[in-house]
Amino acid sequence: MFVDPRLWSLQRRSITGAFGVGLSICYVPLPVHISVAFMLAMLLRLNVPTLIGTVFIVNPVTVVPIYFVAYLTGRTLLGETPGQFRFELSWDWLQNGLGPMWQPFLLGCVVCGAVTGFVGWIALDRIWRWRVQQKHRTHGSRTK
Questions:
Q1: Residue 46 pLDDT exceeds 80
Q2: Which pTM value belongs to this model?
Q3: Which own/partner pairs from 7-14 qualify as long-range (CB within 8 Å, at least 24 positions apart)?
């Protein structure tokens, strides 16, 4: 299960993919980030530490701003004017507090998760490639 070396690999594809998937998982509005991250790491053969570390971007300090941006994104995409937003990370809020906000909130979570995950994956991949190219150029100029 977790003995597969690809889950602990420090290769670019494993790390950058895990980063992108982790950013997407951050927008799941339920407290299931760790379990989803483990399942996706095993299924997609992604770096477990990177994936788990990335999902911790959503924490008690960042959860409200992240979900507020998702809510505003959903409202904008649906063409609704912003209303009063009150978020509480609890089952009661998910069952009763979402009310008229659930559609823009969930749409925003899906869109923000997809966009953030894709942009994060591409950005880290480009940075990784650029750093490798820089190292090869520097190393190549030293050997001449």
A1: yes
A2: 0.81
A3: 7/41, 7/42, 7/45, 7/46, 7/47, 7/48, 8/47, 8/48, 8/49, 9/47, 10/47, 12/125, 12/128, 12/129, 12/132, 14/45, 14/46, 14/47, 14/50
